[in-house]
Amino acid sequence: MGRLYKYRWQYLMILPAVLLLFLFNYIPMAGIQIAFRDFQIGSSIWSSPWVGLDNFAFLQEPHFWVVVQNTLYISVLKFVFGFPAPILLALMINEVMHGGFKRFVQSVSYLPHFFSWIVVAYILQSLLTLDGGLVNELIGKAGGEPIFFLGSTEWFRPMIVASGLWKEVGWNTILYLAAITAIDPQLYEAAKVEGAGKWAQIRHITFPGILPTISIVLILSIPSLITVGMDQIYPMMNSANMEVSDVLDTYVLRSGLQQGYFGMATAVGLISSVIALFLVLLTNQTSRKINGEGLW
Amino acid sequence: MKLTLGEKAGQTAIVALLSLLCLSVLYPFLYMLAISLNEGADAARGGVYLWPRSFTLINYEIVLGNEVIRNSYWITIARTVVGTVCGMLVTLVAAFGLSYRGLPFRKGILGYILITMLFSGGLVPIYIQLHNLGLTNHFLVYIIPRMFSAWNMFVMLKFLQGIPEALVESAELDGAGPVRILFRIIVPLSKPMLAALGLFTAVGHWNDWFAGAFYVTDQSLIPVQTYLQQLLNASDLSAVMGSNTNQEALARGSQQNITLMSIKMAVVMVSALPILCVYPFLQKYFVKGVLIGSVKG
Question: Which residues of A touch B22 (CB under 8 A)?
């Protein structure tokens, strides 16, 4: 008891955090039982009747599997483009000789990270809309037929991938640029003496120098494969592109908060939470094997 | 330093590509600014690319004359200030308490926090809990659920553990209690870290539209980003024209042919301008912040 009393101030300091997590994380975790109950808003979770696996009937609906497919499709696409792009950009920024221009490029490329996805959606709309959008105006001038980008199933994925790149590519170079700065300049000097050109220096010094960072970022991006960023998708969604734009998170949002199928939406959420947990644990194991230490 | 021909060509290519990238970031804002400063019907004819052709401030007058927009702006400012201060305080205090290695049950408490980063109850149970606590349709729904950030806590903890223990111990010998140590010794030493995390927290509040869209139905409580989200798919101008106190501007607006697009661009510029303005001054903090956060906690 004496030791606990000695640390009374410290416990008092931690208490608010513990309470907040209990209220907003642990009670909702207990609320997952809604997935197995017939719950109506206004009634108590604990007294709602148990219904077994009734809420999981969505597993037999074809639309659910379309949603799963969309989620994977978009997250894989975002990964394929979003993972190598910042590495290339960092290598390019590093090669810039003019210091002022280099700092300018860094400043400008970090900027979009600070805008919300709503603002990004406005930018896309102002450029791509049918009535008065810049791109369609230029297409018209070139004599082409206007394209309904915002309501098209073909253009939805490219739009998401491109706007995601636009927003985050610069920001994601920060880690790589820091890793490049940490490389011993003597290595480059020695390589020059040996007669290595720029390209050889990048291949044999810079790239190996940032390889540990690349592997960490790669490992850390595994869990995001299941969450495609509802923040980004939801504003761009409409009835015309629903077929390709509906992903797990938006599906939960619509069926749960908008249509009131609480049990079913919780069940979908539970499935994606479990997959996410599995991916994080997998990531941790991978990290332990490759880097010799886990994430925590 | 002499460059070979190949290196010169490489430099040129890189500079050209990077300039294109910068252009792709900056141009959309310039374009939206030009449209927002142009008469709507005139802009709709096309040809406005860089600067307004038929200059007007009417779009801004109408936007700023709208009660809901003005109010949403205050909500955003209030939640950003209150949310950032409360969030940083609660999280820092917890991180400081947990930085005492001798604390009994320390591992257990850290595990309790870590679990919340790995597994979530999901959207619906969270919503129901907010509803049960009476937080839905309340300003505090923006503040309280975000008051503690597990991620920021671990970053802070990592940073605090880098501060030499001798500093804390000598203060303890002088009779200083933990609260005094935190604010007299720890906070001044952690300024760059606090600035960076505070900045990220503030940006998170400024940009959040989700809570306003799904946890709040009262239009007088929505932040700017939620207003933008509602307007994004609006099919007519009624949302902006209604509850507008600038009747005189409205009357002129209908003469000058404002359009949905010109108004939208004005609203989005009004929401984005503060970030564009403070951005250059905050840069030095956030790069540091990313690097502190990248070190495993």
Answer: 104-105, 108-109
